[in-house]
Task: inverse folding
């Protein structure tokens, strides 16, 4: 195996080969990375207008997501996802350790309840949860032992946090491989900032027709301004995984 290319010395099942094709770029060397993921419908929606997103993606796509989590040091979601989904963000449908869970919550609006704030049952490890909150939120108290809050700078006018600053702060606490798991706003801001090395778009054969959009970037006037990254396609059960290489 070299730089993500591999060679088998014996017979190998086709599915195993596809899996290596897909995931080796993320483990072939010790490089840090930032990977975005979104599970979306054919019309580019990641949830209905009420926020319902379980389950746009099929079983195989969910397994893929859990594999990505297992390869990451940290999995990051925006405040919208943390508040709406109350996710666990642990590895349950693949083998491997659960990453640290990071919530981008500039206004400190995410309720401190639900799985991210609960200790795992006795005998299992509770992954740390890190809240990235704006300085003006002030000290965040009363958190369980596995949860901490880190203040980050926000832009005075827009209230935005620079994704580069997030990546730097996470690297400083040892999280060098980061999965930006959603939602659309958060992944889009990392993409816009040029910080995603790859984007794994899992497209389900479903039309939602309205609701929360996946990617959303500032308007462009002509198509020559569109991103045209190198893309590999993998069948993922009924879904299609588009592995978008934003560094090629
Ligand atoms: N299908 C999927 O793959 C998938 C994955 C994840 C989530 N979802 C669904 O998507 C929906 C939520 O997605 P969403 O796009 O509405 O929201 P989101 O991306 O989860 O969260 C957006 C919010 O996070 C904060 N944020 C993110 N990036 C920031 C930055 N650079 N600077 C400052 N603040 C930042 C802001 O919080 P404030 O609003 O507090 O300023 C922003 O409004 C939910 O319904 C969830 O179920 C689907």
Result:
């Amino acid at each position: 195996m070299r730089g993500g290319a591999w060679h088998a010395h014996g017979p190998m099942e086709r599915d195993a080969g596809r899996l290596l094709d897909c995931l080796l770029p993320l483990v072939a060397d010790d490089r840090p990375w930032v990977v975005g993921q979104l599970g979306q419908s054919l019309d580019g929606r990641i949830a209905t207008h009420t926020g319902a997103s379980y389950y746009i993606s099929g079983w195989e796509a969910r397994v893929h997501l859990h594999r990505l989590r297992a390869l990451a040091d940290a999995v990051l979601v925006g405040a919208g996802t943390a508040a709406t989904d109350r996710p666990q963000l642990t590895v349950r449908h693949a083998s491997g350790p659960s990453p640290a869970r990071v919530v981008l919550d500039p206004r400190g609006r995410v309720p401190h309840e639900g799985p991210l704030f609960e200790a795992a049952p006795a005998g299992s490890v509770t992954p740390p949860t890190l809240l990235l909150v704006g300085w003006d939120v002030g000290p965040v108290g009363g958190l369980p032992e596995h949860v901490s809050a880190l203040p980050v700078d926000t832009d005075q006018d827009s209230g935005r946090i620079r994704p580069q600053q997030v990546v730097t702060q996470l690297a400083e606490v040892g999280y060098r491989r980061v999965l930006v798991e959603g939602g659309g706003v958060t992944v889009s801001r990392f993409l816009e900032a040029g910080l995603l090395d790859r984007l794994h778009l899992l497209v389900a054969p479903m039309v939602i027709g309205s609701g929360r959009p996946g990617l959303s970037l500032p308007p462009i006037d002509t198509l020559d301004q569109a991103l045209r990254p190198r893309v590999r396609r993998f069948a993922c059960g009924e879904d299609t995984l588009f592995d978008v290489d934003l560094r090629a």
Observations:
- The chain is about 20% helix and 25% strand.
- The mean pLDDT is 95.
- The domain at 32-218+229-245 is CATH 3.40.430.10 (Dihydrofolate Reductase, subunit A).
- The chain has one domain: 32-218+229-245.
